[in-house]
Specification:
It is a single chain. Helices cover about 50% and strands about 0% of the residues. With about 80 residues, the protein is mostly helical. The mean pLDDT is about 95. The chain is built from four helices and no strands.
């Protein structure tokens, strides 16, 4: 079962929707993805990550870098318009 977003998207970053769509297209659950990021060395918790995907908070360059690596995509693909 795919959960639907409870809150509307914010406007604090431009990568959140793409990250969420890419993660879901690879059938990766959010909690599993967060665990992968943590094992890679990114200190992020579920609340903070959820806010990033929901565009409720800014994304740091370090987070974007680790997320692209974890999704095995280019940095540019995170910035492409939907």
């Amino acid at each position: 079962m795919v959960k639907t977003r409870v809150q509307n998207y914010g406007d604090k970053n431009i990568v959140g929707k793409n990250i969420e769509n890419l993660r879901k297209s690879k059938n990766i659950k959010q909690k599993d993805f967060i665990a992968k990021l943590q094992t890679m060395g990114l200190d992020i918790n579920s609340t903070s990550y959820s806010k990033l995907e929901g565009q409720i908070r800014s994304a740091s360059d370090k987070e974007i870098y680790y997320i692209a690596k974890a999704l095995d995509v280019t940095l540019e693909s995170l910035f492409k318009p939907l």
